[in-house]
Write a structure and sequence with these properties.
Helix content: 40-55%
Strand order of the largest sheet: 1-5-2-3-4
Structural class: alpha+beta
Strand content: 15-25%
Radius of gyration: 15 Å
Largest sheet: 5 strands, antiparallel
Low-confidence stretches: none
Number of strands: 5
Length: 151
Amino acid sequence: MSSHVTSHYLAEILRDLYFEESTGTIQVTNPNGRTVTLYFDRGMLYFAQSNDPQASFAQCLSAANLLPAGTLSKLLAATPSPIDLAANLVGRKILTKEELAPAVRVLVEGAVVTAFSWPSGSYEFLPGEAPPVFFDADILFTFECILKGIG
């Protein structure tokens, strides 16, 4: 499903994804081409991506000082996408879920707030499977993100 979106409508869409226990991604695009992709597992937010380098997963990892810069550069070069990188970091036991969680929370919250800050745009939801567990999504975190975005 895809359509035009405003911040009011985005709140309704995210609410519906939660109540329908949807799994997949919603990509929100503003008129300037900036995008935010939010990942859902059974209606709960667990990851995000943006085409803004300042709001990237790598930036969140770097800001949290979780990995040395050289290691992060090598991992980014060898990993096709940020979500795969997150799964690999936990799967290979480079980081634990608990160590990675604060960076993922900052990433998701920032992406939701950004998407709500745009006066208009478009969205597309693509149903799909969730990757191996690297973040424990929960109802409280999902609603906190949505409320911060609305605020």
